[in-house]
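We modelled the chain as a single entity of 402 amino acids. Its sequence is:
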Amino acid sequence: MRILFFILLTIQIVAQPGRRVYTKPLKQDSVFCDCNMAREIILKDDKRIWKTLTPKGFGLVNEIPKKTIYSFEQEHNTAWYKLIINSSGKLIFDIMPTNPCDDYDFMLFKATTDHFCDSLLNFEIKPVRSCISRNKDELRGRTGLNSRSSEEYVKAGVTSAYSKYIEVNVGDVFYLVLDNVYDNGSGHSIEFSIATDIKISGVVIDEYKKPLKTEVAFTNNKGDTLMLGKTEKDGSYDFTVPVSHHQTYSLNFYSDSNFVFSKNVSIKDTIALKSLYTMLPKLKKGKKYSVGSINFIGDDIRYLPSALPALNNLARLMKKNKNLKIKIIGHCNFCSYQGTEAAISFTKGRAQSVKTFLAFHDIDDSRLEIDGRSDDEMLYHQPEHEWQAEQNRRVEIFVMEY
């Protein structure tokens, strides 16, 4: 049944009138299989390596001839990167296989000499980070460094997929080597970030100004949870998280008997994030609620990956409150469709995407209705920034029964 829901959603997306489709293929990047030929990457903030060609073998030299608990069993199909650090902070990265079935491991070395590659061959040099585990299927083969892991080295076996971030300074040089265990595999993408710690604190109340005991999750633009905590009895929370300069994040609030809410934030909000004030209204029949961050790709009925935590919280709320029935109302930002009916149909498509998500998470169809309002109820009637246009591309929730 779950596979059927996704098939139906795909059909709905393709069938939407006026949807723009981009089919131009992207050229794959080269990979270099030896340390002394490593691809040079200069890191100041965020950097993405797009899909690469398939690594084939260990190149001309086998630089990892001796297996240790920190290293690959042997070099199979390797790709080398030389990372030149141009700003200070916490280095994090995501390695994403093109084919989720590929098994990518990695080691990260700090270069303390200009002749690091020769030294690696002649001496047993311990990496500063490594991950040689086989991760869980739901992660689709992803691995790397993140802010949640506490392990510097992840050994073989079905264990953690990520190692702990590493503190870096301007002028540092690192060598990153990836190894795909499988021959005839596919390439990979890598997203690098140098993150800065920021403090986030605030208070959560209900509409009667009473403090709320809620769950607070801090998530990135892919929907990954970077921090999960709870408010104190007085509704307050206080934590520190590393954030990248050019990414948007979400603060997600959940309480069983109050409506869910998510707020998009970024590093430019640093001052405001030290004293946030969030109100979660009680669930009531006949009320319409804004979720906050269930937003959509422009000219498309697909929701952004950053919407996943809010969608998951909405599903949790529906499961916890069995009598809750809702109408999902879709909106757009200056709909480009000819005619009112087409625009309404398009925004219903956005509502249907959310309904399909909830149905996939075992919410009965009888508890869900959809509607579309075209661009009649934009939050920003003259959006001057992309984030304002994104906020217009949203859904709202109307409570029919509670």
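As a brief sanity check on the tokenised model: The two ends are 27 Å apart (CA to CA). Residues 151 and 163 are 5 Å apart (CA to CA).
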